[in-house]
Write a structure and sequence with these properties.
- This protein is α/β, with parallel strands linked by helices.
- The chain folds into two domains: 204 residues, Spore Coat Polysaccharide Biosynthesis Protein SpsA, Chain A (Alpha-Beta Complex); 31 residues, no CATH class.
- Helix content is 35%, strand content 23%.
- Strands 2-1-3-10-5-11-8-7-13 form a nine-stranded mixed beta sheet, sandwiched between helices. A two-stranded antiparallel ribbon has the order 4-12.
- The longest helix has 20 residues.
């Protein structure tokens, strides 16, 4: 079962992901995403503006995204499932997604997340994935990131029930984006984070719902350009180019460095 995070107003994205999952033979349930206007940023039981989130920019839409992923973890626990595939609605999926997910579920244990699509945080530094200790899942492998601090993306991932339980216990108040995988590992909220190689999920060139506070004017300009037939294709080409640029990954034979964990307390400043 896949859980698809979708804003109620994003009917084009919903039609797209429904078609993708129908072709792949994957059953799904839509989890209605929160909109940033529905988030009370003054509720300190819900959001902490300081700390990591403040250093990256306190964007209401990022908080809403994190809360939407939190809702999927709670749903998994409510249903008593062993785990679930979590998907954002702007992706294309591999034809073998259903079989792959069954194999991934069998290969995971404890509090674990397996990313089907991924990217890198650091400009010009592709995500490096290690062959060391790879686990075969059909024609693909589960591999570990060499530097978990360079790992990002919540496009699509399988997460175990124990992973859901720990994140549901610790994520509130929201202090970080939903794809701070390195922090979740460092805190001990997840025991393991692996990636599917080759990846099984790719981003489609939909406009992002995350509007960064420093670029709202740019976002409005892009929206205007998308409505102009002569510029629409250029905007979409640029979006695809940037997606490809930030999703670069390489499989290497590098031995994995020891990973540091702290005492499980999330930094607040």
């Amino acid at each position: 079962m896949a859980l698809v995070i979708n804003l109620a107003k994003s009917t084009d994205r919903r039609r797209s992901i429904e078609a993708e999952l129908s072709r792949a033979g994957v059953a799904y349930k839509v989890i209605t995403a929160l909109e940033s206007r529905d988030v009370d940023l003054g509720d300190r039981n819900l959001v902490v503006p300081e700390g990591l989130m403040a250093r990256r920019g306190h964007w209401p839409s990022v908080v809403a995204c994190s809360l939407s992923h939190l809702a999927t973890y709670r749903y998994v626990l409510e249903q008593g499932w062993a785990g679930a595939l979590v998907l954002e609605d702007d992706v294309s999926v591999a034809p073998d997604l259903a079989e792959l997910t069954q194999q991934v579920a069998s290969a995971t244990r404890g509090a674990e997340a397996v990313l089907y699509g991924y990217g890198h945080k650091l400009p010009g530094q592709p995500l490096l994935l290690s062959r060391a200790g790879a686990t075969a899942v059909g024609s693909r492998s589960l591999v570990l990131p060499v530097d978990m601090g360079n790992l990002k993306s919540t496009l699509g991932y399988y997460i175990t029930a124990e992973g859901c339980r720990r994140l549901a216990d610790h994520l509130l108040p929201i202090r970080v984006p939903a794809d701070e995988w390195d922090l979740f590992y460092e805190m001990g909220w997840l025991d393991n984070i692996r990636c599917v190689w080759p990846r099984a999920i790719y981003a489609k060139p939909f406009p992002s719902h995350i509007t960064y506070s420093s670029s709202r004017l740019k976002a409005r300009c892009r929206e205007t350009m998308e409505r102009l037939p002569g510029l629409r294709s250029l905007v979409r080409w640029r979006r695809r180019h940037l997606q490809d640029l930030w999703s670069e990954a390489q499989l290497v034979g590098t031995a994995l460095p020891p990973q540091h964990r702290n005492d499980g307390q999330c930094p607040s400043g």
